[in-house]
């Protein structure tokens, strides 16, 4: 093939097309394919040949030699119009290529969008299924919540009822603890029984009834507190405070002073029935003391404490009190203890007096006691804080404090704490069950 100069290259397509047209024209007119020389001025610019092939196409062969400073003949030059349209055609081709690329990109983007839409649809379906499941679960939870509320309400009602029952049961237990509800069969004494046998608790056939705190102790109770006892001689039940700790326990407390919260300047009737608070300061009552101390042989213990918290006690082997018709006459003897006796040697066999009975000692002392001319012990006197008090104070007639004379060898020292309690002489502490 011949080499085309640079300025002929752009028009090659047009020239070849023109040649094909010429060859076809020759074939139509019955001319044989031949070789022709190119050159209009006698110089050789090149040659070409054409031939029709079997499939009816034109086979064109052109030889264009390299020619310096020579121009191809006019048949190889394109006009300005042809050049313009060829240039436009090239731009269209570039635009078509760009359009194809843009279309390809748009198609790819469309595919991506379709994929994202599909993913979103799947996600939406999954969310719908999840929402449906959550909604179903929510309805189930609402149902369970309603059932739980009903159960809570029922349980609250049951708890309230149980609390009420427990409260009632506690009251019943406390009542049973304080008042055992026992039965008493009093065996009347016969003419063959001695007076001592008739007074002894073992011959009184008491069924399930504690007659004192020692009986409660023997029933296995080892805790101090309030209990109900029934003296065995047919007396009424009485609530008492039991001391289950001091010297082995089993003590029935008759009197206590601890803080001056209860006044002991009381009438005969009040000392007869008892007054005060069993948890703090009180007098059990002369009738009850009589009933308790006349159902057997009892010992008396008196505990004393001064304002420096020094503690002593007096123990009397025998203690009892007669009935009201004998003015609750005192019987006390058999002293021992850690303090000197200021009670039995002077007050034994004395009747009980109160300020409203006309007894001058009771009026001076502002309390009830077994006064003689007046006292060496006065545990129901006025409560003076600090201990020492002056005879020139509220009562210039004489001493009226809580006095145990031998403590300070003085009637003008009032003790801080005192208590009186009894238990059977035959009592023996036992090991806890």
UniProtKB/TrEMBL annotation:
Residues spanning the signal sequence: 1-30
Subcellular location: Secreted
Keyword Cytoplasm: no
InterPro entries hit by this protein: FIB_ANG-like, Fibrinogen-like_C, Fibrinogen_a/b/g_C_1, Fibrinogen_a/b/g_C_dom, Fibrinogen_CS
Cellular component, GO annotation: extracellular region
Residue ranges occupied by any Fibrinogen C-terminal domain in the UniProt entry: 204-426
Listed name of the protein: Fibrinogen C-terminal domain-containing protein
Taxonomic source organism: Umbra pygmaea
């Amino acid at each position: 093939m011949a080499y085309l100069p640079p300025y002929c290259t752009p028009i090659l397509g047009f020239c070849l097309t023109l040649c094909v047209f010429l060859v076809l024209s020759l074939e139509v007119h019955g001319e044989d394919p031949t070789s022709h020389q190119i050159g209009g001025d006698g110089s050789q610019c090149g040659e070409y040949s054409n031939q029709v092939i079997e499939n009816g196409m034109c086979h064109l062969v052109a030889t264009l030699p390299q020619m310096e400073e020579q121009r191809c003949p006019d048949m190889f030059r394109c006009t300005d119009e042809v050049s313009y349209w060829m240039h436009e055609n090239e731009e269209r081709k570039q635009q078509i290529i760009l359009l194809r690329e843009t279309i390809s990109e748009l198609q790819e983007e469309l595919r991506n969008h379709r994929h994202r839409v599909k993913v979103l649809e799947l996600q939406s379906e999954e969310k719908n299924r999840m929402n449906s499941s959550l909604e179903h679960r929510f309805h189930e939870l609402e149902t369970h919540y309603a059932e739980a509320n009903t159960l809570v309400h029922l349980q609250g009602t049951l708890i309230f009822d149980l609390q009420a029952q427990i409260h009632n049961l506690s009251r019943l237990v406390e009542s049973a603890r304080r008042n055992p509800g026992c039965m008493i069969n009093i065996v009347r004494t016969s003419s063959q029984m001695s007076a001592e046998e008739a007074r002894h608790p073992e011959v009184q056939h008491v069924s399930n009834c504690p007659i004192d705190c020692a009986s409660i102790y023997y029933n296995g109770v080892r805790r101090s507190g309030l209990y109900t006892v029934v003296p065995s001689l047919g007396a009424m039940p009485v609530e008492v405070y039991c001391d289950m700790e001091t010297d082995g326990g089993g003590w029935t407390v008759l009197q206590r002073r601890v803080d001056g919260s209860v006044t002991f300047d009381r009438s005969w009737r009040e000392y007869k029935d008892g007054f005060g608070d069993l948890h703090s300061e009180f007098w059990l009552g002369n009738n009850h003391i009589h009933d308790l101390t006349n159902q057997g042989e009892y010992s008396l213990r008196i505990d004393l404490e001064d304002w420096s918290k020094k503690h002593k006690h007096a123990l009397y082997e025998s203690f009892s009190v007669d009935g009201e018709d004998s003015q609750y006459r005192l019987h006390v003897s058999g002293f021992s203890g850690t303090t000197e006796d200021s009670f039995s040697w002077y007050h034994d066999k004395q009747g009980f007096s109160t300020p409203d009975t006309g007894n001058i000692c009771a009026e001076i002392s502002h309390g009830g006691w077994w006064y003689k001319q007046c006292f060496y012990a006065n545990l129901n006197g006025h409560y003076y804080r600090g201990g020492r008090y002056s005879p020139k104070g509220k009562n210039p007639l004489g001493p009226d404090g809580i006095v145990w004379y031998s403590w300070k060898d003085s009637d003008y020292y009032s003790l801080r704490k005192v208590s009186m309690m009894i238990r059977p002489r035959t009592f023996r502490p036992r090991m806890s069950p």
